[in-house]
């Protein structure tokens, strides 16, 4: 099958959401969701400390605010990283052409041509809008489902299930 598609910023951010929802191990996902709350709590605690304690230590206040801001920032950093990466990458301003067969996936862009055999993929994820196909933990391809012809998305899913062995 042949697919011509363009990856929008919305598709890329959906990939972020899908990646984050399936992040392994489970404690990382919990840790990322908890960090902004811990940061906000630290900042609020420092603000209360600033108001309530008359003889306050300025070094402790500064350190508390810095640590709180760090946790708050880190909680949102992955999403920001994804968005910035999309905006800087010139490849996303052009069309992708993917030729998918039983042996490999060949992708042609304005800048490159690559042919990847099925064993080079380590896993895949799927949402209602996209497929994500991983070559490594942070290296992936996005295929928007809207660009598949009728029935091709199901055919592609079957190929993924047959050819991409999920990690153990």
Describe the protein's architecture and organization.
This protein is an alpha+beta fold and 168 residues long. It contains four helices and seven strands. The protein has two domains: 77 residues, PH-domain like, CATH 2.30.29; 78 residues. Helix content is 49%, strand content 21%. It has a four-stranded antiparallel beta sheet with strand order 1-2-3-4, with no helix packed on it. β6 and β7 form a beta hairpin. The radius of gyration is 22 Å and the shape is elongated. The model has no long low-confidence stretch (mean pLDDT 88).
Provide the fold topology.
Blueprint: E1 2-5, H1 9-21, H2 26-52, H3 58-88, E2 96-100, E3 104-108, E4 113-117, E5 123-126, E6 130-136, E7 139-144, H4 152-163
Antiparallel strand pairs: 1-2, 2-3, 3-4, 5-6, 6-7
Primary descriptors:
alpha+beta; three-stranded antiparallel β-sheet; 21% strand; PH-domain like
Summarize the structure.
The protein is α+β, with helices and mostly antiparallel strands.
Order of helices and strands: EHHHEEEEEEH
What distance separates the N and C termini? Answer: 30 Å
> What's the total helix number?
4
Radius of gyration: 22 Å
Structural class: alpha+beta
Q: Strand order, main sheet: write it out.
A: 1-2-3-4
Q: If you average the pLDDT, what whole number results?
A: 88
Strand proportion:
15-25%
- The number of distinct β-strands equals 7
Principal-axes shape call: elongated
Instruction: Estimate the helix proportion, in percent.
Output: 40-55%
Number of domains: 2
What ranges have pLDDT less than 50 throughout 5 or more consecutive residues?
none
Largest sheet report: 4 strands, antiparallel
């Amino acid at each position: 099958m042949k697919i011509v598609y363009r990856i929008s910023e919305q598709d890329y951010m959906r990939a972020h959401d899908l990646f984050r929802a399936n992040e392994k191990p489970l404690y990382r996902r919990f840790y990322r969701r908890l960090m902004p709350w811990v940061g906000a709590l630290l900042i609020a605690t420092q603000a209360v400390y600033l108001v309530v304690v008359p003889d306050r230590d300025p070094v402790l206040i500064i350190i508390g605010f810095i640590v709180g801001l760090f946790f708050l920032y880190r909680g949102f950093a992955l999403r920001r990283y994804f968005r910035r990466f999309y905006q800087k990458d010139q490849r996303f301003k052009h069309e992708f052409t993917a030729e998918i067969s039983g042996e490999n996936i060949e992708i042609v862009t304005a800048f490159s041509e690559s042919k990847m055999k099925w064993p080079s993929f380590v896993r895949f994820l799927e949402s209602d809008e996209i497929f994500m196909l991983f070559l490594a933990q942070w290296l992936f391809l996005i295929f928007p489902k809207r660009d598949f012809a009728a029935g091709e998305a199901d055919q592609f899913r079957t190929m993924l299930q047959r050819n991409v062995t999920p990690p153990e």
